[in-house]
Write a structure and sequence with these properties.
It is built from one helix and four strands, in the order E-E-H-E-E. The model has no long low-confidence stretch (mean pLDDT 97). The chain starts with a strand and ends with a strand. The chain has one helix spanning 26-39, and strands at 2-9, 15-23, 46-50, 56-60. The chain has a four-stranded antiparallel sheet, with helices on one face. The radius of gyration is 11 Å and the shape is globular. The protein has one domain (2-60). With 61 residues, it is an alpha+beta fold. InterPro entries: YhzD. This is YhzD-like protein. It comes from Planococcus versutus.
Length: 61
Amino acid sequence: MRTYKLTAFEQTGKQILDETFTAETDVEARGKGEALLEEKELTKQTHRLASPTGKLILFHS
């Protein structure tokens, strides 16, 4: 399992979400990240999901 980091921000730059979770693949991590954003109603906020190697899996500004 690999550890991924999901963060979301307000327009002012204030961080409003900082979650880590594990997944087997980048595809699985993307699905988990999207589900977390939907659950917390943050899909329209600036967000990013990074892999353990620093690769951006999800990004929205």
